[in-house]
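Page 47, continued from p. 46.
Same chain as before, 106 aa.
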Amino acid sequence: MSEHSRDYEKYHEKLNFLLKDHGVEFDETEVDLNTIESLHSKVNDLCRAHGGEPGEMENYTLESLHPKLNQVLRGHGIQYDDSHLDKSSIEAVDTKLELLMDAHHK
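Result:
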């Protein structure tokens, strides 16, 4: 099991909530949830739910999640200055997921 698998589980729970709240069904049966790519798969679907097409974007790093998350944030009317974040950290991803969770709880 990867060192991030427990962390990824927490983020998948948040992403699952956001996907469900957007009316998106995501089938996890064919996805290794202990990978960064699995986070990308779900964030890609959130982008599509907001009219974006993430197909041209990279799907292999934590850093490359940020343009997608930024698009979803903008879809909620949230402008967030992330210049202070270490975009290579899972904590930076979580910061943006929390902003989205807050937007959905309002």
